[in-house]
């Protein structure tokens, strides 16, 4: 019980955890009070602050090497609710704090309300929803209570769904409705699992639950229901049907956030569930099931991506495939095997590098779509000469998806590959290699027409600054490939197996 | 079989019925109703858990009741959002279906948002 007491003693810098959530919420309220005309300035003004808070949390965590804890209202769990930041939370906070501002500054051209022009409905909605997504993501990354996390997931859904249908075209409305129905199915199943866990153990705090959990029918049922619900929100095959139309039809900046970050939030919770709440369960079989679904997603998503005729749909199907890679960590990263830490880092690395690479690719695809007036791959001939920076960003993102060195995608897949070989689970290695080849195929298919010599007439040349934003995100994905060993150690902070091994 | 067990089984049955409806009915409105049915089953389950007072030995545990209230608010907001989307889809296309082919065939009326 000493362990539990230590886990709930508030740490230095704890107010940063609250600030990370309050800042975007304050932005939303201010935007509503001051009116739509100010929404853009408020959102963009708060973004550097939000980044500062996320970075400060990461630095504090780096220095102390132990998770940061904040106890809401001074009520200790099980009665109260704790906010916790471990290594995984911190890197996700920083990733969100880079991708969301990038999407925000990119979206200024689409969602500005110029002085003197009448106020439209879409721009303030976009800025408010973008901040709402940020707030909800931060609650998901910091939440230490399963019911609190349910509310955070719902907030995230309610912020993400309207972003899909911001332009009000019928196909985007249908895509948003389908997304919402899948998400509601997911959340109600998650809630049912939460009910069973509370009924069995009388607490929903992650640390207290982990100490009390033992294998019983109710726990298996709860774990199954919660995982199934979260899989629907993560769009793992075969529950991926909602993702391609929703992500491909949203405005480019929204697609970048949805594909890069929002699906990662429910994945984050699956990791929390299996590694933090249920490490006491024998999880070889569930891990194998998740990795099998992940393998199917890699193959199925990649093949479908190869068959797409529109660039944004191709990128969206590649998200279905890349999500599959995330689930390969489950059979490998549990327990205290030497390869478990590697698989853990690999899974987290894939989460981060995909967030940056996919956001960069959606922004680049958005620029291409705006400059050409369409995003049909067959019509991209010669675009490499007309928009070199954009195509370079698209290519660098693709490099990371394929797993070519040097890139974050390469590090992630290399580490996962090593772990699966060391664990003697060869099947995952074969799937990863096949997935890499298929990714090479669809990236080539998207880029090959761009480098032909055909002349191309741009409707409008892309803005330099927006090209630079897409390129900067792609470079982040590449830079992750140069992450030093200490970064991998940072990812292990707060991982239960790693913490138990400490003296 | 005591009252709590009966109510728990009823909750499970309602969840099952709702899930069946959510999967089999193609119409979005029926899917939304089915989602609400599942929600009711889950809330009933929370009620039973509160009655059992699993955690603290109270006659009735207030925490699950607080969760149900939050859950109802969330489910209400979700239904409102879904209905708003259904109504908007009907305004734009004159029909409510999740299959794009249904309204993609006659080249879209392209009606813009505002």
Q: How does this model look, in words?
A:
- The complex is a heterodimer of chains A (503) and B (114).
- Chain A contains 21 helices and 2 strands.
- Chain A has 503 residues and is an all-alpha fold.
- Chain A has a two-stranded antiparallel ribbon.
- The two termini of chain A are 17 Å apart.
- The mean pLDDT of chain A is 87.
- Chain B is mainly alpha-helical and 114 residues long.
- Chain B is 74% helix and 0% strand.
- Chain B has 4 helices and no strands.
- Chain B has helices at residues 3-24, 28-52, 62-93, 100-104.
- Chain B is elongated and about 55 Å long.
- Residues 105-114 of chain B have low confidence and may be disordered.
- Chains A and B meet through helix 6 and helix 7 of A and helix 2, helix 3 and helix 4 of B.
What's the arrangement of secondary structure elements?
The complex is a heterodimer of chains A (503) and B (114).
Chain A: H1 2-7, H2 14-34, H3 36-64, E1 68-71, E2 82-85, H4 87-107, H5 122-142, H6 146-164, H7 170-201, H8 206-212, H9 217-234, H10 243-249, H11 252-277, H12 284-306, H13 311-326, H14 338-372, H15 383-386, H16 388-402, H17 408-422, H18 426-447, H19 464-479, H20 485-491, H21 496-501
Chain B: H1 3-24, H2 28-52, H3 62-93, H4 100-104
């Amino acid at each position: 019980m000493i362990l539990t007491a230590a886990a709930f003693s508030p740490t230095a810098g704890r107010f940063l955890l609250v600030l990370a959530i309050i800042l975007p919420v304050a932005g939303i309220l201010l935007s509503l009070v001051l009116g739509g005309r100010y929404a853009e300035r408020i959102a963009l003004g708060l973004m550097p602050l939000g980044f500062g808070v996320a970075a400060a949390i990461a630095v504090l965590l780096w220095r102390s090497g132990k998770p940061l804890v904040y106890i809401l209202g001074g009520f200790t769990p099980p009665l109260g609710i704790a906010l916790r930041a471990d290594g995984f939370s911190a890197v996700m906070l920083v990733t969100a704090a880079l991708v969301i501002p990038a999407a925000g500054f990119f979206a200024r051209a689409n969602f500005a309300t110029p002085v003197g022009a009448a106020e439209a409905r879409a721009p303030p909605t976009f800025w408010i929803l973008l901040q709402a997504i940020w707030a909800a993501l931060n609650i998901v990354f910091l939440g230490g209570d399963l019911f609190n996390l349910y509310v955070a997931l719902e907030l995230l859904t309610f912020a993400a769904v309207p972003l899909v249908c911001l332009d009000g075209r019928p196909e985007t409305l249908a895509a948003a409705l389908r997304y919402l129905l899948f998400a509601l199915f997911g959340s109600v199943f998650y809630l049912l699992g939460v009910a069973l866990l509370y009924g069995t153990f009388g607490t929903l705090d992650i640390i207290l639950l982990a100490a009390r959990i033992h294998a019983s029918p109710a726990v298996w049922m709860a774990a199954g229901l919660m995982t199934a619900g979260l899989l629907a929100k993560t769009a793992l095959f075969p529950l991926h049907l909602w993702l391609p139309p929703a992500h491909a039809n949203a405005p480019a900046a929204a697609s970048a956030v949805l594909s890069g970050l929002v699906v990662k939030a429910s994945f984050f919770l699956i990791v929390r569930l299996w590694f933090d709440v249920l490490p006491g369960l024998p999880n070889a079989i569930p891990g194998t099931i998740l990795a099998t679904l992940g393998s199917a997603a890699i193959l199925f998503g990649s093949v479908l991506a190869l068959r797409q005729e529109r660039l944004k749909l191709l990128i969206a199907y590649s998200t279905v495939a890349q999500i599959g890679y995330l689930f390969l960590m489950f059979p490998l990263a549990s327990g205290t095997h030497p390869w478990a830490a590697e698989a853990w880092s690999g899974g987290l690395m894939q989460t981060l590098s995909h967030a940056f690479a996919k956001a960069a690719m959606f922004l680049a695809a958005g620029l291409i779509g705006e400059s050409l007036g369409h995003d049909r791959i067959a019509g991209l001939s010669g675009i490499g000469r007309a928009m070199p920076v954009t195509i370079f960003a698209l290519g660098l993102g693709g490099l990371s998806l394929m797993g070519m060195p040097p890139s974050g995608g390469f590090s992630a897949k290399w580490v996962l590959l090593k772990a699966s070989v060391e664990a003697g689970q060869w099947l995952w290695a074969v799937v990863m290699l096949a997935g890499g080849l298929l990714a090479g195929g669809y990236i080539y298919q998207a880029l090959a027409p761009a480098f032909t010599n055909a002349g191309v007439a741009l409707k409008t040349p892309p803005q330099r600054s927006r090209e630079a934003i897409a390129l900067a995100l792609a470079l982040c994905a590449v830079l992750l490939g140069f992450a030093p060993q200490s970064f991998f150690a940072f990812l292990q902070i707060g991982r239960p197996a790693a913490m138990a091994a400490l003296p | 079989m005591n009252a709590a067990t009966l109510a728990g089984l009823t909750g499970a049955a309602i969840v099952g019925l709702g899930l069946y409806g959510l999967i089999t009915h193609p119409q979005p409105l029926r899917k939304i109703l089915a989602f609400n049915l599942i929600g009711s089953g889950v809330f009933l389950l929370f009620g039973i858990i509160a009655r059992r007072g699993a955690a603290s030995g109270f006659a009735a545990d207030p925490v699950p009741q607080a969760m149900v209230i939050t859950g109802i608010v969330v489910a209400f907001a979700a239904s409102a959002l879904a209905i708003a989307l259904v109504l908007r889809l009907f305004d734009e296309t004159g029909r409510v279906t999740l299959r794009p082919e249904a309204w993609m065939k006659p080249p879209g009326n392209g009606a813009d948002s505002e």
